[in-house]
Specification:
443 residues, alpha+beta, 6-stranded antiparallel beta barrel, two-stranded antiparallel ribbon, 11 helices, 16% strand, elongated, Membrane proteinase PrsW, cleaves anti-sigma factor RsiW, M82 family, PrsW
Length: 443
């Protein structure tokens, strides 16, 4: 079984390696560099074994059932030691690949992949000791938590280098300490014997809070890329679909292994429980970590919040009344289709030619991408009236975000808007709506 567990642990790690390859849209990293970082992360487990054997065992620092002792052990005996171990591969690759680690998202990617190597070895050990029933839960909770905690350390460096240049080594140490506390706090509730039976609930709630922080940290890194351009956006639909496909394979793997080691009845029962628990967590995690609003030089503050909102007695849904609805936070609009026309000439078609403001198809050019009040997305476009390159007027486009948003599942629909007194504090209601238009490529 150790071989099967190893393949599954490697595949879990690959899911998130591929995730970083999908969201690193400005200057992609070499897969070979990621593989080296991952292998060093795997080897970093030896650092933990060494500190446990030669330091903590000799001084008798371990769990003993005392609240304060076990909390300190979780933070310093587990959190600080493991974060230190995962930091070592990152430091090595930073100096080896220094010229290639040249934008904020790179720091998060490399330290996360070091964490994935560490987590992969840890997963094999847990699966081998406890059996395949842990696969789905650890594939999301433990894996993402390892990445987040290590990313806090990298985020301290990012803030120092790209934001305020204040604090120096003290700032880096404080972010390392924050990573250790975060790691230890998550583990403590499941390690402390008096909370072990229900502590997982606290840990899952905390996981969701850190998920919101992770999304903000990643978004800030992308916003402040050295190579930032509004021409590129993250295809959130592609990210979600690929990640859910990967996790579907993980669910199948756990089902097959439980069937093999136990029987079909236990496997069926387990898969239903996994869908209700791990499945929901996976869906929320994948969706939230696919939603980014890319605004150049924007830094959003970390705040304590869940990555979703819950509406009780929210109204009617397809098939009848819905007593509760869950909405994952983040920018849900997929800009992929309309952003393809950014800084490009295109044909602007009136959606309804019978009562059209434009009257006929116009050659147009999107000049600027704008985020106005409440971060509402607009595009500023030149709309030409003739072949004369000086014969144009400026209008604003706002992508349609609900109902039918594409024609032939390809061409985006947008509102054509006009405003006399433009300023950055405008919102949609301040514009004059002229008509719905369709954007098509210029042939």
């Amino acid at each position: 079984m150790i071989v099967a567990y190893t393949f599954i642990a490697l595949f879990i790690a690959w899911i998130w390696v591929d995730y970083f390859r999908l969201i690193d849209i400005y200057e992609k990293e070499r897969l070979g560099d990621f593989i080296i970082t991952f292998l060093l992360g795997c080897a970093s487990v030896l650092v933990v074994f060494g500190i446990d054997d030669y330091v903590f065992d000799k001084i008798g620092f371990d769990l003993n059932g005392n609240f304060l002792n076990d909390l300190l052990y979780s933070i310093f005996g587990v959190g600080a030691v493991e974060e230190f171990a995962k930091l070592i591969p990152f430091v090595i690759v930073y100096f080896v690949f220094k010229n290639r680690i040249n934008e904020p998202i790179d720091y998060l990617a490399y330290i996360s992949i070091s964490a994935l190597g560490f987590s992969a070895v840890e997963n094999v050990l847990y699966f081998n000791y406890n059996g395949p029933g842990l696969i789905n839960g650890r594939s999301i909770l433990a894996t993402v938590s390892h990445m987040f905690d290590s990313s806090l350390i990298a985020y301290g460096f990012i803030r120092y280098k790209y934001q305020n240049k204040k604090g120096g080594m003290l700032s880096l140490f404080l972010f390392f300490l924050l990573a250790a506390v975060s790691h230890g706090f998550y583990d403590f509730w499941m390690l402390y014997e008096k909370t072990a039976s229900f502590g997982w609930i606290i840990s899952v709630i905390y996981f969701f809070i850190t998920l919101s922080w992770f999304a903000i940290i990643l978004n800030n890194a992308l916003n402040n890329s050295t190579f930032f351009t509004y021409k590129r956006v993250i295809n959130s639909k592609k990210v979600v679909n690929r990640m859910l496909l990967y996790y579907g394979l993980i669910f199948i793997s756990q089902f097959v292994l439980i069937w093999y080691t136990e029987n079909i009845n236990i496997a069926v029962s387990n898969i239903f429980n996994s869908i209700l628990f791990a499945g929901i967590i996976i869906i929320i995690t994948v969706i939230r970590l696919s939603r980014f609003k890319l605004i150049e030089n924007r830094w959003d503050n970390l705040k304590i919040e869940l990555p979703f909102s819950v509406t009780i007695f929210g109204g009617f849904a397809v098939g009848g009344f819905s007593p509760m609805s869950i909405k994952v936070k983040g920018n849900s609009f997929d800009e992929t289709h309309i952003n393809a026309f950014y800084n490009e000439y295109f044909i602007m078609n009136p959606l309804n030619s019978r009562s059209s403001f434009l009257k006929y198809d116009r050659i147009s050019f999107i000049e600027h991408k704008l985020y106005l009040k409440h971060d509402e997305l607009f595009y500023k476009a030149k709309v030409y009236s003739s072949a004369n390159e000086l014969d144009f007027k400026y209008y604003f486009l706002k992508p349609k975000t609900n109902g039918t948003i594409l024609i032939n599942n390809e061409f985006p629909i947008a509102a054509l808007l006009h405003v006399e007194d433009y300023h950055d504090n405008l919102e949609y209601k301040d514009f004059n709506f002229l008509e719905w238009i369709v954007l098509k490529p210029k042939i």
